[in-house]
What we know:
The chain is of the alpha+beta class. The protein has helices spanning 10-15, 20-32, 104-115, 122-128, 142-153, 156-169, 175-180, 192-215; strands spanning 53-66, 69-81, 88-91, 132-133. Strands 1, 2, 3 and 4 form a four-stranded mixed beta sheet that branches. The radius of gyration is 19 Å and the shape is globular. The site of zinc ion has 8 residues, from loops.
Amino acid sequence: MNQNKTFINKNEAEQISASPEEIEDYNNKVRRNPSSCKPGSCQCCGFASDEFKKHDTRKRQFYAIVEQIIQTVIGLLIRWECPNCGKTFTDYPDFALPYKRYTVPTILTFSGFYTEDDQITYQGVNIKMPVAYQDSEKQMSHSTVYRWVTDIGNSTEIIQKSVDIILQADPMSKICRDIANLFVPPKKYRSDERLKILSQCRQFLKIQKLFNFKFGVKIFPNFDKFPSFQ
Ligand SMILES: [Zn+2]
């Protein structure tokens, strides 16, 4: 038995990735009823409308992790045409992000493994939760986790907007206090820039959990679907 797997309970394992079934469910919606996937507003000009026209459908490879094995699953994404600016843009289901093959739960979970444990290194994350490619000895690279932490930590605007929305809905919220002093161990950074990224990554992970809990809406990737932004 693989010793490493003893770290993982069923709950944790369920949350680390969108499942192939979830991706296929979305594909079926795209095939059968694309209008049910309509975006709230245009990603180019921000125009809110229910008059978006389907421009085309394209395929995208996703990596779904099942029992710590990375499976390639083909997903369908719709490009929409905006009736206001005439431009086309891709809309993403909750599990997907632009330019990313791994799904949102994977990106959030692995980033959290790194930032929420003061002792762990990037290599340590891969030991805690080893995942390997199907039909190959190759494992997910620790530089992948580094990049995810960087991307999330650079989401300054999303963090600010999310905090604003939470405070609008609940002026007594303690969110500002909760995210003000999140500790980052000095051994994890060598520059102020990296400190800021790690700190903001921790902030984002906290905020997105609260956001999801309060509003039942995921911050990633369709922030504009939230009513306040329409
Ligand atoms: Zn537009």
